[in-house]
TrEMBL record:
PANTHER family: AAA FAMILY ATPASE (PTHR11603), MEMBRANE PROTEIN (PTHR11603:SF147). In the N-terminal section; belongs to the PINc/VapC protein family. PROSITE patterns: KH_TYPE_1 (PS50084). This is ATPase (PilT family). NCBIfam families: PRK13764.1 (NF010335). Residues 520-544 are annotated as: Disordered. Pfam families: KH_1, PIN, T2SSE. One of its GO terms (molecular function) is RNA binding. Residues 259-384 form the AAA+ ATPase domain. Keywords: RNA-binding. Residues 1-115 form the PIN domain. It comes from Halalkaliarchaeum desulfuricum.
Length: 616
């Protein structure tokens, strides 16, 4: 008689067990190459199941040498993509084919494999799978009431982050260095516990990285070659709060309940953003809203009535499509980081779902600016109407976001009226920022009672005046603002007539376009005097400047700056300001050839000046 064991039976040691109890005396064990390939792949990924299966195959060698049985390896090796399709039954199908070809009994600990085999007319022997019992989390002893996370790595002393939210310290919690054997045992036990316990599951399993969720612990296990040693990082919430414990609680409650909102919860790492998001989720749930979460990995500590969704097929976009069928009232999105995350957030919000997103940002306004370039400007208030900034575990700032049509603050001409996003302090009702398009650029302007160059409006106005004057002047241009509505422009004496134009027509056109009165003077009339040559080295290199190599195409001058997608930047040549732009979704700035800006840029390139990009 022949017996064909599948991967589950080999891992559980059922083949040698059946041989030793005499059930297979004189039989031939036919091992499919598909089983060997699957065990080898699991062992390469550092999985215990792979090593246990290979140990069972080595026991079979000893049993063959003792004359207990005969064994042979047959069949095809799995295709490279078969491992990815193992959950769809590709490898199991190869094993069943071997059993059919050799008229053999199929030995398995996999109930589905057994049922499919019987349906195919095979002789099947099903044995119960081995239950690997693990009592508790092996690193629980490192946690106390103030421990947020524990950090373990081969050859290092255990460390932990302890303290209160906003006052966490990274400290050593053990004097002895961990050994590789100890780390491997802990890692294997944690993964086995997640598989065996109803309180745990494997969130992510990739070569070199496993993320486990067990009770309220989220544990990342990294192994070589992905990491340079075995590392275990375990995180657990140390505080569970209610919305009532935060400032602005009552108006925020009213705001969340009156209609579905788009809210961004922002703050620096460790500030308590996720803790506040959990409080919002449970408040909404307690008020009879259908609440779901989108997390990768899932680590919000919420009640059982709130279903926590991961990334379906590795993509949050697929999760969003599924949730739109479920129709939640609110979805908590933890965390919104990449461009596709913002796009998914916006799509769900525009579909009518209330959205609460968690975003890393060091200022409240930075959270909103991360939408610029990712979401159409006019749609931003429909996507996000509330920004909450968390600092040291408390609500520090709340912004209300609305659109209005007006002349931007600091400009006067009525024909400059345009859609403006107003960002208002929720508590005082005082406008804090305006976001709008100025000369095809998206600008975020902080509002201030001060006049002159120091205000956001002054900075933008100065840049635009300088750009306009440079389009007609040949020499050096310098701009000084004299209040919000007046400026003095200093140019070379030879450029005076070109800038003013016949009968003052050219400068009048510029004043009308910008809504600012401009007085044109020579450099000699500037306080302090001096000529352009004296000032050529005045500007020092900016340490934040990124050197770029513009590409000139038939229609555009293209500047690649992938690291600043969606951000507003200054482009400079030889350290001198050229223009301000918002980096597009594709990570580039495109300037149409033939425009004044493009001509300046091309001229700077021809003169081999260093072109740099600086975040505003």
């Amino acid at each position: 008689m022949n017996v064909v064991p599948d991967t589950s039976a080999v891992i559980d040691g059922r083949v040698s067990e059946r041989i030793e109890d005499g059930s297979y005396a004189g039989w031939t064990v036919v091992v499919p190459e598909a089983v060997v390939g699957e065990l080898e792949a699991q062992a390469n990924e550092g999985l215990d199941t792979g090593w246990e299966g290979l140990a069972e195959l080595q026991r079979l060698v000893d049993l063959v040498e003792d004359g207990e049985i005969e064994a042979e390896y047959v069949g095809e090796r799995p295709r490279p993509d078969a491992g990815d399709a193992a959950g769809e039954g590709e490898i199991d199908a190869l094993i069943r084919d071997v059993a059919a070809d050799h008229d053999a009994v199929l030995l398995t600990s996999d109930y589905v494999q057994a049922e499919v085999g019987r349906a195919k007319g095979l002789q099947v022997e099903y044995v119960e799978p081995v239950v690997r019992q693990v009592d508790d989390l092996p690193i629980r002893e490192y946690f106390d009431d103030e421990t947020l996370s524990v950090h373990l790595k081969t050859g290092t002393r255990p460390k932990a982050k302890r303290g209160r939210i906003g006052e966490l310290t990274y400290q050593r919690i053990g004097e002895e260095e961990t050994t590789e054997e100890q780390m491997r045992e802990w890692a294997d036990t944690i993964e086995a516990l997640a598989r065996a316990s109803p309180d745990g599951f494997i969130e992510l399993a990739e070569p070199g990285m496993t993320i486990v969720q067990y009770q309220d612990f989220r544990i990342a296990v990294a192994r070589p070659p992905f990491a340079d040693g075995i590392e275990i990082t375990a995180v657990r919430p140390i505080v569970k709060t209610e919305l009532e414990e935060y400032s602005h609680a009552e108006p925020l409650k009213k705001r969340l309940l009156e209609r579905q909102r788009g809210m961004l919860i922002s703050g620096s790492p460790g500030a308590g953003k996720s803790t506040f998001a959990q409080a919002v989720a449970e408040f909404l749930d307690s008020n009879d809203y259908a609440v779901k979460t989108m997390e990768k990995p899932r680590d919000l500590d919420v009640g059982p009535d709130i279903t926590q969704y991961g990334a379906l097929g590795g993509e949050m976009a697929k999760t969003a499509d599924s949730l739109l069928l479920v129709r939640p009232d609110y979805t908590i999105y933890d965390e919104v980081r990449k461009t596709e995350d913002f796009e998914v957030f916006a799509d769900m919000r525009l579909a009518g779902v209330g959205m609460v997103g968690v975003v890393h940002a060091t200022r409240a306004i930075d959270a909103l600016q991360r939408l610029v370039g990712r979401v159409e400007l006019g749609m931003i208030p429909q996507v996000v109407d509330t920004v909450v900034f968390i600092e040291d575990g408390q609500v520090d700032t709340v912004y209300d976001v609305q659109t209005t049509v007006k002349v931007p603050e600091g400009l006067t001409a009525e024909d400059l009226a345009r859609p403006v996003i107003q960002v208002t302090d929720f508590e005082t009702g005082r406008p804090e920022y305006e976001i709008y398009t100025f000369n095809r650029q998206v600008v975020t302007v902080p509002l201030s009672d001060e006049d002159g160059d120091d205000t956001g409006v002054g900075r933008i106005a100065k840049q635009e005046i300088e750009r306009e004057i440079r389009s007609v002047a040949q020499g050096h241009v310098e701009v000084q603002l004299k209040g919000q509505n007046n400026a003095v422009v200093y140019v070379d004496e030879d450029d005076i007539s070109y800038v003013i134009g016949k009968g003052g027509g050219r400068i009048s056109d510029i004043e009308e376009r910008l809504g600012i009165d401009i007085d044109v003077r020579t450099h000699d009339e500037r306080p302090g005097g001096g000529n352009a040559a004296d000032r050529s080295g005045a500007e020092l290199a900016d340490p934040d400047a990124n050197v770029v190599q513009p590409e000139i195409t038939s229609r555009h001058v293209v500047i690649r700056v992938d690291e600043f997608v969606g951000e507003t930047v200054e482009v400079r040549a030889g350290g001198e300001y050229l223009f301000t732009a918002t980096v597009g979704r594709g990570g580039d700035i495109q300037v149409s050839r033939g425009s004044a800006i493009a001509e300046e840029l091309e001229d700077a390139i021809d003169r081999r000046q260093e072109i740099t990009v600086v975040p505003v």
